[in-house]
Design brief:
This protein has 469 residues and is of the alpha+beta class. The chain folds into 4 domains: 129 residues, 2-Layer Sandwich (Alpha-Beta Plaits), CATH 3.30.70; 66 residues, MutS, DNA mismatch repair protein, domain I; 56 residues, DNA polymerase, domain 1; 150 residues, Dna Ligase, domain 1 (2-Layer Sandwich). The chain is 37% helix and 19% strand. The strands form 3 sheets. It has a 5-stranded mixed β-sheet with strand order 5-6-1-7-8. α5 crosses α6, α11 crosses α12 and α13 packs antiparallel against α14. The protein is globular.
């Protein structure tokens, strides 16, 4: 029997077309990623127009992008209910994270519990005071990782370009697939994919669609729960006018506060401000970024595949740093950033790398591979601190850049490899389950209350220029 997808493709299965189509889409994405994503500034010859009566069709590069963001609805709650259908599965008021005694923090809550005021990042004890009849279960992390993998595998059969943004968010780029499905609209594609995932993985998702990743993400929020919201090409600006500036992905509490001091709290407040003034206030990179995002401009491509060879975070200092304690305080913040990125993607790392650029632009690096993959802030920080000490012992001069990176990435729930050799004195302290739980707890608090809600005691209070890769 022919499925709708096979019928639309002229009898050919959709999966059969993906292998040849995917490589072309990746190349198209690379060509489409203009330096600043400013369509109003691109030379006119790059966007040829078909003349009346012309039989030529626009190429995929010329068409508006067709991007979807799939956001799993209360993902941890759904997985917990599937894991325990007789317990959590029957609990209408369900809190995932912490314990029934009130220890820990909320990772997620069922939609039925949210009207009581229960939110992620909230202490479980407070959540139980707000919703005393709720059932509390621990986070089923291994099951969540496996379910996320199952979703990715299924999406690879439905779309040519798939990128996992986190354990429960997935970007798809369907640009140029219209002819494969006889002109199927983005709305129809989103509905089809949403229903397919529910049928094959048992997970309900909300879908946002647009020509830009950021707009698609905001649209997915409007679609929750279990809905679809598509922003048509040309409608990005009007859509963005319904948001506060603090709701734009990438605008953290500090930037939102700085904007509010200038009387800028909503997107309509910001629109009359010229790009030149934003650059003057916030610097060239951030000012232009704000100007574009407020208008729904986001040229960031959807990159096929979720695997990354490494994750790193670097900091260039406004003034060279001389003393070791100051460098170590910066290192704490960098290790935290790297660890958080690891955990967000459900990964662990085997190798930690420390990068140091001296005042004379000489760049030095040192790496260490640990016994068993790690993900906690403490483990990454301690290995990086030892590497920094080694580099500084060899050459102690003013530093202008510091970086921390990890590589040898693997899935977070993969079994840990046991070493046949005894640990040497130089081996880093092993990562404990307590280390991992504390790091996940910190992530939940920062996700809920912002990055400034929880800061290591040794972190510097200055605000140097950052660059994360």
């Amino acid at each position: 029997m022919r499925t709708p997808a096979r019928e639309a493709c002229g009898g050919m299965p959709w999966a059969h077309l993906l292998s040849s189509y995917r490589d072309g889409r990746v190349a198209i994405n690379e060509r489409r990623a203009t330096p600043r994503g400013r369509p109003d500034l691109q030379p006119s010859e790059k966007t040829p127009m078909s003349t009346p009566g012309s039989s030529s069709l626009p190429t995929p590069e010329d068409r508006p992008r067709r991007i979807l963001l799939l956001d799993c609805d209360a993902f941890f709650v759904q997985v917990a209910r599937r894991m325990d259908p007789e317990g959590a599965g029957r609990a209408r008021l369900l809190i995932v994270g912490g314990s029934s005694s009130g220890r820990g923090v909320v990772t997620s809550a069922s939609y039925e519990a949210r009207p009581y005021g229960v939110r992620s990042g909230m202490p479980t004890a407070r959540a139980l005071r707000l919703c005393p009849d709720a059932t509390v279960v621990p986070v089923p992390r291994s099951a969540c990782t496996e379910r996320s993998r199952a979703i990715r595998r299924r999406l690879r059969t439905l779309a040519p370009v798939v990128q996992a943004a986190s354990i429960d968010e997935f970007y798809l780029d369907l640009t140029g697939t219209e002819r494969l499905f006889r002109g199927e609209s983005l709305q129809a594609s989103a509905e089809r994919i949403r229903k397919d995932l529910l049928e094959h993985t048992g997970i309900s998702v909300s879908v946002g669609g647009a020509t830009a990743r950021m707009v698609a993400k905001l649209a997915a929020g409007r679609a929750k729960p279990a809905g679809v919201h598509i922003v048509p090409p040309g409608g990005e600006g009007a859509f963005m006018e319904g948001f506060e500036l603090g709701q734009i992905p990438g605008v953290g509490p500090k930037l939102a506060e700085s904007l509010a001091r200038r009387g800028l709290r909503t997107v309509p407040d910001l629109l009359p401000v010229s790009e030149a003034w934003l650059v003057r206030w916030f610097g060239e990179t951030r000012g232009r970024w704000l100007w574009e995002r407020a208008r729904g401009i986001d040229p960031t491509p959807v990159v096929d595949g979720e695997e990354r060879k490494s994750i790193s975070s670097e900091r260039t200092f406004r003034e060279d740093v001389v003393d070791d304690p100051a460098l170590e305080r910066h290192l704490v913040q960098l290790a935290l950033s790297v660890g958080r990125q690891l955990r967000k993607k459900g990964l662990r790392a085997r190798t930690v790398t420390l990068k140091l650029r001296d005042h004379d632009f000489r760049t030095r690096q040192a790496s260490r591979t640990v016994e068993g993959a790690v993900e906690s802030d403490r483990a990454i920080r301690e290995v990086a601190t030892e590497l920094l000490s080694e580099l500084r012992a060899r050459r102690r001069v003013p530093a202008r850049l510091l970086g921390v990176g990890v590589s040898g990435l693997r899935e977070g729930d993969a079994p840990r490899q046991l070493s046949l050799l005894e640990e040497t004195e130089a081996a880093p302290p092993p990562e404990t389950e307590r280390d991992r739980k504390l790091s996940h707890l910190g992530d939940a608090l920062r996700d809920r209350f912002g990055d400034e809600a929880l800061r290591p005691g040794r972190v510097l209070e200055d605000d140097p220029e950052d660059r994360e890769d």
